[in-house]
Design a protein that fits this description.
The chain has 303 residues and is α+β, with helices and mostly antiparallel strands. The chain has ten helices and 13 strands.
Length: 303
Amino acid sequence: MKKILILLLAFLSIGNLSIAQNLFNAKSPQDINKQGLVKDADGNLIEEVKKPLDYAYISDRDVMWSTTVWEKIDLSQKLNMPFYFPVDTNSIDANRRSLFDALISGIKTGKITEVYEDDYFTQKISYSEISQFTSRVDTMQAGLDELNNGSASVSSMYLSKQDVKSENVSEFRLKGIWYFDKRIGEMKYRLLAIAPVGEELRNPEVIYDTPADRFELFWVWFPDARQVLYEAKVFNPNNTSFSLSFDDLLNARRFESTIYKEDNIYGDRAIQDYVKTSAMFQLLEGNKIKSRIRDFEIDMWSY
């Protein structure tokens, strides 16, 4: 027990040291937002190149059993709030963004390219196609009057642009696979894709009163987004000098979720398609799937 505690303290001290050097040795405020600062051969501070830990290679013969599940991360839950905040980016550090902002920024800059319309990855979409239903430009009455008076175009001051922001995203949906690795004798989880669920601005007449009225904006192939999510830091309330990343939180499954679908013979139908009585029974059915996955690993070691 003492050895584990010593290793944990050593790991935290290394993380604190790297962040502290970044903060205290920065020559300008712009250096604080960098991943880490190290010295080159000439003694100048440069940004240290970091990347997430690569996944281990999994052979097909090592996978004894697997099942694919879809989960919902409700952003109103307290444990899931690190994925939602901050919603106001005007008065916060540039390296602190919500999960939606990190994803949409990665897609816009081209760092994330594996973006699809659905969770089966049948059709890729670009940022311009995503913008068609995540942003809308409305013309004010003064702009319409300008057009009626014979103007060829509307002045920009009479145009109102609206974009889907973090505050408009109610949940995230995950697609992942649970599998039993017989080589190490352990149940493992691999996240495959993630999708934000928000409002569609393409149709201004739709009123989004409940989360059920919202839809999946896009699906991101998670391995392609790991570098972006690794660079996006999350506020750590227990130690502000040792920040975490979205890649850390998602791979460690540090969130509260409910299963809403599992691959099945009926065309991967969702739980709500065959449990229609109440939301409580749908939640119990999702917990039943969780228990079956957990019990499979336990039964492997029962004699």
